[in-house]
Design goal:
2 copies of one chain form a homodimer. Chain A is an alpha/beta fold. The first copy, chain A, has helices at residues 7-13, 19-31, 107-124, 139-147, 164-176, 187-191, 235-239, 257-262, 274-280, 300-318, and strands at residues 3-6, 35-36, 41-46, 49-59, 64-73, 84-92, 98-103, 132-135, 156-160, 180-184, 196-199, 218-221, 242-245, 271-273, 292-295. In chain A, the strands form 2 sheets. An 8-stranded parallel sheet of chain A has the order 10-9-8-11-12-15-13-14. In chain A, strands 1, 2, 3, 4, 5, 6 and 7 form a 7-stranded mixed sheet that branches. Chain A contains 10 helices and 15 strands. Chain A folds into 2 domains: 3-108 and 301-318, ornithine cyclodeaminase, domain 1; 126-298, NAD(P)-binding Rossmann-like Domain (Rossmann fold, 3-Layer(aba) Sandwich). Helix content of chain A is 32%, strand content 25%. Chain A starts with a strand and ends with a helix.
């Protein structure tokens, strides 16, 4: 009998999960080669524009395998729908049988992405955060800021967006939960005041360039997850002192780094893989002057870990 | 609200669907380039042995896209479970939102595969079928024979299998529904008496070789759908007068043909694609002496078509 869980049930169980621990161990397992994870499956749509990603795989000698489907359709606001949607499927590694459907509507993908941002900030962000800069006003622009609570007390946020109404809504919503928010349509207003910057848009043209870099700045780029999306001028990767990716394999094809590789601004052997950083058990940043960049395109190991943990917590709660 | 349908509901609706019409139009749409279908996603498991395939895509300017997951775990009989399982997911092409989950347990995959066998038999099998030869005793070895009813009145079946108990069970079950069944463990007993042969096993060593070929024989190979599986000695592809595949693109990587391509026994431009054959609207076999082979690895277009048709029929039945 297939178990089926809806979003409200899933949300309730997340408090029972040590999210950064399970996601860190997923990255670590991936980087030591314990996760079987084929290339990302991808469908791209033009009218209306959207993309669907299938991330899937399994940890060797584990009980389950996971197939995660997540979509971003960026004109869904016209239908009063969130841009993100999706589900996670958990199967037995012994029989292939479907065990559980998590109808998370893309929520678990958002959470595991935000947790990854939290993890890279722990290893890379400067000790003292002046202000948090955010490109984008959507779900990840909100969730990622909230997940940084365990890393920093900073509540000053400067947010960049193209739409004034979205900026106003972001400001209002985030102020309600305790943040002090400035809005801007000029990227320079972020780069001159913020030393922890989050890129969360589906932009295909760079929003930050080398002239925006300042010593001590950390940038987490999590919006670009396809071949075409790009939020950072790729020369930034050359200027940065430390560049981290969640997957050396995947960053050859998608995200910020593949643009930098193609244009010769960075080499693969100059990039750290997050799982290896985690296994090193120490902060990668060694000075407050260093410029650091993390390029996260999201890997199946995160989906596998959060789906399994959600199933376990749901099971415990139902018994 | 996501619609979720179980196997018994799905089975009931199939009578309302003109299966060969929808699957033929899927193959035709694929062959004229109207189906966006990335490479098959695949997970391979070693202990216990199994494989999971993700086939997915969409017809341009259609309302939906489909992601199909189907697994074969060949030691499931030890747990008294069928080897096949799976589900189909239907999403909106306008918003990315999940519309319907078809918990078909792999049944729709079996049906669309059997329908493809029926279609190739229509275009390739000799006019007069002496006996139907079947390699394998599983679900497809049964279903495929039954789906040939629309092509031939022949009820004589010779079945090959490795296990005597499986052969006995096959014979008993098929006799109950009106077939006359001989069992054998020698492939020659099939090749000397049957002129329509169905390969339905997950074998990785060829079960039929060139010495088994006789004029007028048609072989449909549908068991091999991975890189490693192989049911036919690849020189058979060289000896055959006509070779058809469901996908010229996919057969480069999986099924029987890629072995033949790699070993130089056949060239890609000597192979017909099924959708083109269907668009030609005439039998490809032009003489009763020709040897014909169809290599089917199963394409997303079939899954898209059967999933959409099932949803439509389920919707009609519920209203």
């Amino acid at each position: 009998m297939v178990k089926i869980h809806k979003l409200d049930q899933i949300k309730k169980t997340l408090d029972d999960i040590n999210l950064d621990e399970i996601i860190e161990s997923g990255f670590a397992a991936y980087s030591v080669g314990d996760v079987i994870t084929p290339p990302v499956g991808e469908l791209v749509f033009e009218d209306p524009p959207g993309d669907t990603h299938i991330k899937y795989g399994y940890i060797k000698e584990d009980d389950y395998f996971v197939i995660k489907i997540a979509s971003g359709f960026y004109q869904n606001y016209k239908f009063n729908l969130p841009s993100g949607s999706g589900l996670m499927l958990v199967f037995s590694q012994k029989t292939g049988a479907l065990d559980t459907i998590l109808l998370d509507e893309g929520y678990l993908t958002n959470v595991r992405t935000a947790v990854a941002g939290q993890i890279v900030a722990k290893y890379l962000a400067p000790d003292k955060i002046d202000k948090i800069g955010v490109f984008g006003t959507g779900t990840m622009a909100r969730m990622q800021v909230q997940f940084l609570k365990s890393i920093t007390d900073c509540i000053q946020v400067v947010v960049w967006g193209r739409s004034e109404s979205s900026l106003d809504k972001y400001k209002k919503d985030m102020q309600e939960i305790g943040y002090e928010v400035e809005v801007t349509q000029d990227p320079n207003n972020i780069s001159c005041s913020c030393n922890l910057i989050l890129m969360t848009t589906p932009s295909t043209v760079p929003l930050l360039n080398c002239s925006n870099l300042r010593p001590g700045m950390h940038i987490t780029a999590m919006g670009s997850d396809t071949h075409d999306k790009q939020e950072l001028e790729s020369r930034i990767l050359n200027q940065a002192d430390i560049v981290v990716t969640d997957s050396l394999e995947q960053c050859k094809l998608r995200g910020e780094i593949h643009h930098g590789l193609n244009e010769g601004h960075i080499k693969l052997n100059e990039i750290f893989e997050l799982g290896q950083v985690i296994l090193g058990r120490k902060r990668l940043r060694t000075s407050e002057e260093q410029i650091t960049v993390a390029d996260l395109t999201g890997i199946a190991a995160q989906d596998i870990q959060i789906a399994k943990a959600a199933c376990k917590a749901l099971e415990a709660n139902s018994s």
